[in-house]
Input
Amino acid sequence: SQAASRSTARPGASSSNMATTSQRSSAVGMGNDEFTNLVNNTVYYILVADQHKTPIKRKDIQKFVLKDHSKSIKEVLKEAKQKLSEVFGYQLIDLNDRLGSYILVSQLNLSDAKDFLNRNDADNARLGLITLLLALILMNNGAVTEEKLWSLLSLFGLQSEVDDPAFGDLRKLITTDLVKQAYLEYTAVTDTEPPTHQFRWGMRAIHEASKLTVLEFVCKVLGNGVRPEQWTAVYNDIIRYQQQEQQ
Output
């Protein structure tokens, strides 16, 4: 499985981790074994819940996993985050929303995304669609109106009015499902007549997809030896963004 293939615990980390675990279990008045069991159950719950690719709610972890120990969630999540990162290679991202939601992210593998027009492979088709959407948003200065997005998608044979053979109700998938899964943000544009909406990259996309990799995807689709640097404005924005992230 993907989780198993990510098992890359850092050498030499175990002794310091044990000390940290002991400190955290003491902080919440629990023995090491009981605390570790709660952490492991939380990690398992998060991995299973992530299969739906919808945000994982803090209150659900408290209700279904921690139960009588719900007040220990801060320390349990600290330990769970560490284990998810070191053992499975995932990041647990706090969305900082009013519901107290988290998403589990890893780097998207875009190597097969250029085959997105092959609708027979459901996984590749979905990954390709997500990558295409992110690319169209990226190439439109980070935001694209709903009307323009559908116009661009029609060039790839993707229509909002009819069910797609691979994706079914494409409008619902893009405006609802991928928004719930935090790949896209879908917001109303103020002071427009008639009212319209726009799309931006969602939190999951920001953490899972490299903007430079998405730009490279665009170049592969276009072919003819097109290089990322030739998209001067977009490329320079990406470089500035990467420099800010490193500061």
